[in-house]
Write a structure and sequence with these properties.
With 404 residues, this protein is of the alpha+beta class. Helix content is 35%, strand content 17%. The chain has four domains: 8-55; 71-117, Orthogonal Bundle (Arc Repressor Mutant, subunit A), CATH 1.10.10; 131-303, Nucleotidyltransferase, domain 5 (2-Layer Sandwich); 325-384, no CATH class. It has 13 helices and 14 strands.
């Protein structure tokens, strides 16, 4: 009979203390704890040699591995990485395959293990208690392109009854309006195309603040991830969502929308083209002529500058730490593990997720810098994480509104 599952260390400690104290038959103590005499002597000897630390389970990892890479192969991998520091293990392995026999080339995970062992993997810094379980990034914008805010201005009709609903994007620090453009619809692809134009012209922000509406968030997805916000994450942009029903947390943006309502919506034009022209004039005036007290009476264009983080339209190649299982999310939103398909979310279809082993047949599911929840292979279920609302939310955006 093995040790009981609960309080194993306590049982072993009690056993060895009674065994070395004397006064009881050693065999009877072993029978009481449900172990053999051989096992009992093993733990007694470990305790006498190492103390309490000797009562823990020893590693079962073999001293050597028959599949261990040769020194020459390790050197080739490192040399290739140093020649192309911006390339990931997948690209490096493909290069090595072209220069030699594919059967002799190690697996992608071996590449990751070697590079991680010599410190050539640039790890993403993350705080699991903050980045992993919450999407609020309550920071005050400290420089241009630190925080961008995004939303749709409520729609209105032009005089010919055309519906006009502009997408607005604004730099929170400089108050510079980066986009004020009416779109045909609010679908993910339409908004993504508009944002691609903005990213191409101005570069990337560090954080995007939005509300919880579509297409910025999805109520039925882990941590509210949508196809659009997942794309932002792959670009290295952090997410900052306001609480439902709390527009004051994006106060500066709401204040700008109030100006649009008074100065543009209040002067409805004949059609959408004329209305957009009026909005373009308003945006130019807002950026280049209107002074802001919070900017020392400067105009936004005097403070704003383009982001040093250039936009790369090439789909990102996501990398995860060595030891993670990397799985592509299939079209239906599932991942395949141990020949079983387990649904995670369709918002990530086509992207790779990292599965971090946490215990037998259970994995923490990571996407970029976010832990989405836990996946249980045995039960074939995914348990989504919940955003952490325990931290006090910042009133920076509200104060910013007052400063305008």
């Amino acid at each position: 009979m093995p040790w009981q599952e609960t309080d194993v260390m306590d049982q072993r400690t009690e056993f060895v203390l009674r065994a070395i104290r004397g006064g009881e038959r050693f065999g009877e103590i072993c029978r009481e704890f449900g172990i053999s005499r051989k096992t009992g002597y093993k733990w007694k000897e470990r305790f006498l040699a190492e103390g309490l630390s000797g009562l823990g389970d020893a590693s079962r990892r073999p001293k050597t591995s028959p599949g261990e890479l040769s020194e020459s192969m390790v050197c080739r991998i490192i040399k290739l990485k140093l020649a192309h520091p911006g390339w990931g293990p997948r690209k490096l392995r493909a290069v090595l395959e072209r220069t030699g026999s594919p059967s002799d080339v190690p697996s992608e995970s071996s590449f990751k293990r070697v590079l991680d062992g010599v410190g050539l993997v640039q790890r993403r810094r993350r705080k699991r208690s903050e980045q992993g379980r919450r999407l609020r990034t309550p920071v005050r914008a400290e420089r241009p392109n630190h925080v961008w805010t995004i939303d749709f201005k409520g729609w209105w009709y032009t005089r010919n009854r055309s519906r006009f609903e502009p997408l607005t994007i604004r730099d929170a620090y400089s108050r510079y309006v980066l986009c004020a453009q009416a779109l045909d619809n609010a679908c993910t692809q339409t908004v993504r195309e508009a944002m691609t134009r903005v990213f191409t012209r101005h570069g990337l922000p560090e954080v995007i603040r939005s509300d919880n509406g579509s297409p910025f968030a999805a109520s039925n997805s882990p941590l509210g991830l949508s196809r659009l916000s997942a794309w932002w994450l792959t670009l290295g942009i952090d997410l900052d969502r306001i609480d439902p029903g709390r527009p004051e947390q994006n106060g500066g943006h709401e204040r700008m929308h109030r100006d649009v309502a008074v100065e543009v919506e209040g002067d409805a034009q004949a059609d959408s083209a004329a209305q957009q022209a009026t909005l373009d004039v308003w945006r130019q005036t807002f950026n280049e002529e209107r002074p802001h007290e919070a900017l020392g009476m400067r105009v936004p264009s005097e403070v704003y500058h383009e982001s040093p983080r250039a936009f790369d339209p090439t789909p990102a190649e996501l990398e995860y730490p060595a030891g993670y299982l990397v799985r592509k999310v299939l079209t239906q939103g599932s991942v395949k593990v141990a020949n079983r398909r387990i649904n995670v979310t369709s918002a990530l279809r086509g992207w790779d997720v990292g599965l971090e082993p946490i215990r037998d047949q259970r994995y923490a599911v990571w996407f970029c810098r976010l832990c989405l929840g836990e996946l249980d292979v045995t039960s074939e279920k995914f348990h989504a994480a919940s955003p952490d609302n325990e931290d006090e939310l910042s009133d920076a955006a509200t104060e910013e509104c007052k400063a305008n």
